[in-house]
């Protein structure tokens, strides 16, 4: 009865321990692990030199060619079906200056390829740890001066001169543009009063330049980091994994009843904590790429553009946001996948530990299972009879083994003291030989 009670108490304690471990892991360990996977992945993506330095420079190099392709295909009726939009592209092409040539004339290409690219190179060197961190300033004043150059006014006027004259409706629209500005307004494809158009374009450029900062400062009040930002910050953020690992370790230690179960709890918990992060990062990455194909056509900033023009611009520039999204979410997917693999490895270790051959132990007669005190007397009788039979069988075996040992001992003694017949002394007639006395006494002893 007492053994059964002890057994039940142990079973109850095991259940309680597993419930406590499950609460610790599910409510604390797994949510923290999910968040740490995202933090480490996003940190690795956003502080890398590829994202901050190399990708912007690649975009800068492609801007002139992108503008050229848009202007070439914008004149095709199969691409742009809207007559007004196509008229603007034709007028721009007949102005005699291509977009790339205009960027070179006003100095925009030089600023992008030299001044801005040089500053981005310095940023990349700091992120890679190749130079000491110091404030890096990107001066935007030259860009402001470029946007206010007279060459831009002259180019816009030449484009307007290539347009057909405006009717009354066109004139009214241009007057409203001159009064209220160009924001979210569709430009009529006709030649207005040049002074009205010049004032509208000048005001629009002035607003853009005014909203722009004079300079952008990077790495302000940042000390030197020997290993570089792109390597130091991801390494430092990786130490955050210690927090969820500690809770998973404690929960597994509480619930485990053997080394195999400990590794099994650790492996399953680690896998279940990283799997949602992996699936969510994969889903967000692809749903964002899919959303980019729809968002431009419904953006309020592009209301003045025709749907065909929006589609054309997005087609030529879609690789830029796709590269950015891929660069942001790919590290999260990678980190989550590594953590999932770690969980699988821990689970595999639990299988290896469980399948280890156990050391040979001395076999003993196992006691029958304890009888529950709740059993009725008629259920206890067969159990007691079975126990009695086993005890009797064991006793009989012990007696038989004792008899065999005793017979072997007696046979050994007889052989030891037996002499040859010629050497045996003759016993007196009236005396009984000692061997016969011994044999006569032996049955009495038995």
In words, what does this structure look like?
It is a single chain. 71% of the residues lie in helices and 2% in strands. The relative contact order is 0.11. The chain is an all-alpha fold. It has a domain at 2-140 and 213-351.
Q: What can be said about this structure in brief?
A:
The protein is built from 16 helices and two strands.
Low-confidence stretches: 355-368, 371-376, 415-446
Number of helices: 16
Overall mean pLDDT stands at: 76
Number of strands: 2
How far apart, in Å, are the first and last alpha carbons? 44 Å
Major beta sheet summary = 2 strands, antiparallel
The shape, in one word, is elongated
Output the structural class: mainly alpha
**Proportion of residues in β-strands:** under 5%
| Oligomeric state of the chains in view | single chain
Helical amount among residues, as a percent range?
over 70%
Rg (CA only): 47 Å
Question: How are the strands of the biggest sheet laid out side by side?
Answer: 1-2
The SSE order reads HHHHHEHHHHEHHHHHHH
């Amino acid at each position: 009865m007492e053994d059964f009670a002890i057994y039940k108490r142990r079973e109850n304690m095991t259940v309680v321990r597993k419930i406590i471990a499950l609460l610790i892991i599910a409510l604390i360990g797994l949510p923290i692990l999910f968040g740490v996977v995202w933090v480490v992945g996003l940190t690795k993506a956003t502080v890398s030199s590829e994202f901050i330095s190399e990708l912007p420079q690649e975009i800068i190099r492609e801007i002139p060619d992108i503008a050229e392709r848009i202007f070439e295909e914008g004149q095709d009726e199969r691409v742009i079906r809207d007559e007004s939009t196509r008229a603007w592209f034709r007028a721009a092409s007949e102005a005699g200056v291509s977009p790339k040539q205009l960027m070179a004339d006003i100095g925009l290409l030089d600023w992008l390829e030299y001044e801005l690219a040089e500053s981005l190179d310095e940023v990349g060197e700091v992120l890679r740890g190749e130079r000491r961190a110091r404030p890096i300033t990107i001066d935007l004043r030259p860009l402001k001066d470029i946007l206010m150059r007279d060459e831009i006014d002259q180019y816009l006027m030449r484009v307007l001169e290539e347009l057909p004259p405006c009717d009354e409706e066109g004139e009214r629209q241009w007057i409203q543009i001159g009064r209220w500005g160009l924001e979210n307004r569709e430009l009529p494809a006709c030649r207005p009063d040049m002074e009205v158009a010049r004032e509208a374009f000048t005001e629009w450029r002035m607003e853009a330049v005014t909203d722009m900062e004079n300079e952008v400062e990077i790495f302000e009040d940042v000390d030197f980091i020997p290993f570089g930002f792109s390597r130091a910050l991801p390494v430092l953020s990786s130490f955050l994994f210690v927090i969820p690992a500690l809770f998973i370790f404690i929960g597994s230690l509480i619930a485990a009843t053997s080394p195999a179960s400990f590794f099994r709890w650790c492996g399953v918990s680690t896998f279940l904590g990283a799997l949602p992060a992996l699936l969510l990062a994969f889903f967000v990455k692809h749903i964002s790429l899919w959303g980019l194909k729809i968002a431009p056509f419904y953006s309020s900033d592009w209301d003045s553009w025709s749907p065909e023009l929006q589609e054309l611009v997005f087609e030529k520039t879609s690789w830029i946001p796709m590269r950015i999204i891929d660069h942001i979410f790919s590290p999260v997917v990678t980190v989550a996948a590594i953590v999932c693999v770690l969980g699988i490895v821990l689970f595999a270790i639990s299988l290896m530990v469980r399948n280890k051959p156990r050391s040979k132990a001395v076999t003993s007669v196992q006691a029958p299972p304890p009888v529950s005190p709740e059993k009725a007397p008629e259920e206890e009788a067969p159990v007691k009879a079975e126990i009695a039979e086993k005890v009797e069988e064991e006793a009989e075996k012990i007696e038989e083994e004792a008899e065999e040992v005793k017979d072997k001992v007696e046979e050994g003694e007889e052989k030891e003291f037996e002499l040859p017949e010629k050497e045996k002394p003759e016993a007196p007639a009236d005396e009984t030989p000692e061997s016969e006395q011994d044999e006569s006494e032996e049955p009495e002893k038995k």
